[in-house]
Amino acid sequence: MLRAIILYSTLIFLLMAPALHAAEKAVAPAKETVESSDAKRAQALLARAVDYYKGNKDRALAAFSRAGEFINGDLYVYVVGTNGQMLASGGSSSALIGRDISDLRDATGKAFIREMIDTAKTTGAGTVEYRWLNRSDRKIERKVVNYQKVDDRIIAVGFYIPRASQEQAKTLLDQASNAITIDQTSAYTAFNDLNGKFIQDDLYVFVIDLKDSKFRAHGATPRLVGTDALDLKDPTGMTLLKKMIANAKPSGYGKLEYHWRNPVTEKVEKKTTFLRKVNNVIVGVGYYTR
Question: Does residue 27 carry a pLDDT above 80?
Fold first, then answer.
């Protein structure tokens, strides 16, 4: 009898095992990918352009250079030969078609086309980041270009990144805090310098003195320097300084979420600001999300 029960239990387990395994797979959390919609759109457009070029060869260049299926909003395709010659473009760089752009440099002096050509020759595909004029808002912004080499043609699609990451915000906060500990006066001057290293796209530093609640620095809005921050509110009516002090003063570190104007997009967006108490001031650097 006991043997029959064991055999019956084993049979039930074997029959249920596949279902249990399937259930485990069903509840297992999916691996999340962190990609912006612009990045996905750019990758999809590049894939279509590569396939089209493979089927049509240089006849595809004309299609890439005119309004049509290879322009997706602010995204477009451009093609550079491995010899550095611009061969096609659906954007403003169409003015460069026929010219050697191998030594073209970005706003910081980076030879990004040369980097793209050299990498494409070696690996066949890649990504390069540089700083370029975004004609939609007339501002220099970070741009990422994905590219793939087909024969001796490099097909590319790029997109702008108007928003910095939380890691970049934390890094800038560390740099700003260190600068204050070395020389407060010089640090404030550097934070307010519109062409300085402490203003990076939508990232900037602000400093509020805990003694009198006044701004000592504000990279995005220098006119706030010297004004009282005590009653400053975001567009939803949140009083900011009191919450910043409450978050940062006890441990020396803090974080606050609120709404504020993004200096790049010029739109009110959700912002997360990291805070640090250094000597007698609160230092803040925040990043924006849509």
Answer: no
